[in-house]
Design brief:
Blueprint lengths: L1 H19 L13 H12 L6 H28 L8 H23 L17 E4 L7 E4 L5 E3 L2 E3 L1
Antiparallel strand pairs: 1-2, 3-4
Helix pairs in contact: 1-2, 1-3, 1-4, 2-3, 3-4
Length: about 160
């Protein structure tokens, strides 16, 4: 849920960047319901123990806002050379958010909590949760790789 909200906020930044660059051709900035989406997310986030029904309702709402923002961005970037106005980081975030949206939508439709190569961070999409079962933390986050050095050679 937090990831969808973060993705929505990043998409809103991208829409603002594209609009400020003047790519819209003098048209108004598209409606993205920024305040409404934020208000809905905060209402959910404040809830200490949300019920399944409330979780699904909140995820559905955030998915719809992200879907709307992605459609606006696709229209803006296809209409003119809009992608050249985005920074490399924004392009990476856009690709990650598209993947995140597809994964979250798949999990929502199938009512599951797992998906192949699940994204847990927009800023670091290569990081995966690793279940360790330790007392301090049941789940750790990091790259699934183990490297050891022996006589100056790295062994993966």
């Amino acid at each position: 849920m937090t990831l969808l909200n973060e993705g929505r906020e990043k998409l809103e930044e991208i829409i603002d960047t594209v609009h400020e660059a003047g790519i819209t051709g003098g048209k108004k900035k598209p409606r993205i319901y920024r305040k409404k989406a934020r208000k809905q997310y905060l209402r959910f986030a404040r809830n200490r123990k949300p019920k399944k029904k409330d979780i699904r309702r909140a995820v559905k709402a955030q998915l719809s806002y992200v879907r709307r923002d992605l459609k606006h961005i696709d229209k803006l970037l296809l209409s003119r050379d809009g992608e050249s106005h985005l920074t490399q980081k924004q392009k990476e975030h856009l690709a990650t958010i598209k993947t995140l949206y597809e994964q979250q939508e798949q999990m929502y439709k199938t009512k599951s909590h797992t998906v192949e190569k699940r994204i847990v961070s927009i800023h670091q999409p290569w990081v995966r949760p690793i279940v360790r079962g330790k007392a301090s933390a049941a789940v750790e986050f990091g790259a699934k790789i183990s490297i050891s050095t022996l006589d100056g050679y790295a062994k993966i």
